[in-house]
Amino acid sequence: MKKLFVEFKEFAVKGNMMDMAVGIIIGAAFNKIIDVLVKQVFLPPLSLLTNGVNFHDKRIILKEAVLDTSGKVITDEVAIGYGILGETMIDFLIVSFTIFMVVKFMNRLRNKSQDVQDETVATPKDIELLTKLTKLMEEQNNLMKTNK
């Protein structure tokens, strides 16, 4: 039992696991922002351009709902909700474009930090070590060529 607990502890506190947990939490919060952005910022002007059409309610009714005399639903309506699909596609486009911009920004920062010649940004240790190793190997190759 102790071995199982130790293995679980190693699994749970690995860096990747923590990174993933943080990513999931941030993703959930980001989803709320995108939801508000789509429903409260983008869709109202789009609805205004289409004379107040509410996309959420747009659907193709395949079978009307059946009601009894008191108005209680006996059989539910069968419909294709293409308006919700449209909203979801807008959500997807906004999320994918935002993620693209964030990744592009992060890549620019990473490329700048990995540029050994750029002294405005601190170069990561692994890049510095690889650069030094490359220079040493070049020096060694040059010495071997001159000794031949």
Count of discrete alpha- or pi-helical segments spanning 4 or more residues: 4
**Segments where pLDDT lies below 50 for 5+ residues?**
none
Content-based structural category: mainly alpha
Total E-strand runs: 4
Head-to-tail CA distance between termini? 63 Å
**Nearest-integer average pLDDT:** 81
Order of helices and strands: HHEEEEHH
Helix content estimate: 55-70%
Amount of beta strand: 5-15%
What does the main sheet amount to? 2 strands, antiparallel
- C-alpha geometry: elongated
Instruction: List the strand order in the largest sheet.
Output: 1-4
Radius of gyration: 29 Å
Please provide a written account of the structure:
There is one protein chain. This protein is mostly helical and 148 residues long. Helix content is 69%, strand content 8%. It is built from four helices and four strands; from the N terminus they run ααββββαα. The strands form two sheets. Strands 1-4 form a two-stranded antiparallel sheet. Strands 2-3 form a two-stranded antiparallel sheet. α2 crosses α3. The longest helix is centred in the N-terminal third of the chain and has 35 residues, at 15-49.
